[in-house]
Amino acid sequence: MITQIRGLHHVTSMAASASTNNKFFTDTLGLRRVKKTVNFDAPDVYHLYYGDEVGTPGSVMTYFPFPHIAQGRPGTGEVGTTVFSVPEGSLGYWTDRLTKAGADGLKADEAFGEKRLHFAGPDGDGFALVEVRDDNRAPWIGNGVGAEEAIRGFHSASMRLRDEGSTAELLKFMGYEQVDARDGVTRFGIPGGNGADFIDVETMPNISSARLGAGSVHHIAFAVENRAKQLEVRKALMDTGYQVTPVIDRDYFWAIYFRTPGGVLFEIATNEPGFDRDEDTAHLGEALKLPTQHEHLRKALEEHLEPIA
After folding, report:
1. Are 215 and 173 in contact (CB under 8 A)?
2. Dihedral through CA 107, CA 109, CA 114, CA 117, nearest 10?
3. Which of 223, 200, 278 has the alpha carbon at shortest distance from 11?
4. Structural domain count, the chain
5. Which one of 7, 34, 57, 276 has the fewest beta carbons within 10 angstroms of its own beta carbon?
6. What's the predicted TM-score (pTM) here?
7. Which one, of 65, 57, 59, 9, lies nearest residue 37 by Cα?
8. How far is Cα 230 from Cα 242, in angstroms, rounded to an integer?
9. Across the strands, what pairs with 60?
């Protein structure tokens, strides 16, 4: 069994408009944009990162905003809901804030004894806020949300699958333990995690497969401390029969990827070197940062990419 994984690292999704996406995550949700860079494989498309002050693993939501992208179709084989942790007693504040911002899909409920508020992102993305007692992770409070309400980071991600069996076994192999099961949803948790500790699996055998597009989660990443531990995880997965990519340098972390039995793309990402490797902490996310192989395109990209504040 793998023991090196410490919870979620980041969640990466698709969007249509970079400026709309940036405004929602910074102005509405109060997160910090910690990096403005481009897609390694499509440098004419931004890769935007939002999180806490330094982009701590377990807090980072990232986006590929493709202009003119088709709308995604919800279904099985994908992450359906990305869930953020907020302090107890703050959901009233968030209900008011999201209502004033014009967010769609607001719905309050409870799951696993926790109060939640569901809402949709600008592209119909599925999100929820959950009240968590004693989440001691430091929030970012530079965008107008107070410390008593601000998002602490991820709480969980919920996957919709036609059959949970093989993915449940994979999660257990990755060090997750089943901690509860209610109303058709099974919750898995990582012991001693980084705060972004849970994966919920919803089995929906009669639902068609999702279609990737705006509002869809592209992949979900799990955190390991460093490259040595990442290589241990890669070997363990390959020894079990998974087809895992070589290690890829993503500038702010190293990554490996593999497709799960349920269809969701998993990534294992390192906590090192971090988002401050090429910007001072005080100025994270301000300048356009390009991978070395795309630096020669800077002038053309600065003219092509949609301006964002």
Report:
1. no
2. 0
3. 223
4. 1
5. 276
6. 0.97
7. 65
8. 15
9. 10
User: How does DSSP classify residue 58?
Assistant: T
Quick count: other Cβ atoms within 10 Å of Cβ 250?
16
What would the mean pLDDT of 12-18 be, rounded to a whole number? 98
Q: What angle do CA 151, 306, 120 make, to 5 degrees?
A: 35
Separation of alpha carbons 267 and 251, rounded Å: 15
Residue 49: φ, ψ to 5°: -120, 135
Residue 254 lies in a domain: yes
CATH code of the domain containing 40: 3.10.180.10
Task: Please answer whether residues 199 and 159 qualify as being in contact, where contact means their C-beta atoms are separated by less than 8 angstroms.
Answer: yes
For residue 3, tell me if it sits in a domain.
no
pLDDT at 309: 78
Domain-located, residue 2: no
Q: What is the pLDDT of residues 235-244, one digit of tens each?
A: 999 999 999 9
State in Å, rounded, how far the first CA of the chain is from the last one: 45
Q: What is the pLDDT of residues 287-301, one digit of tens each?
A: 999 999 999 999 999
DSSP codes joined into one string, 195-232: S--EEEEEE-TTSPBPB-SBT-EEEEEEEESSHHHHHH
Query: Domain span at residue 71?
Result: 8-304
Residues 73-102 have a mean pLDDT of 97
Measured over the CA atoms of residue 84, residue 197, residue 212 and residue 227, the dihedral's sign is positive
Query: 63 φ, ψ to 5°?
Result: -140, 145
Both tokens assigned to 51: 């999180």
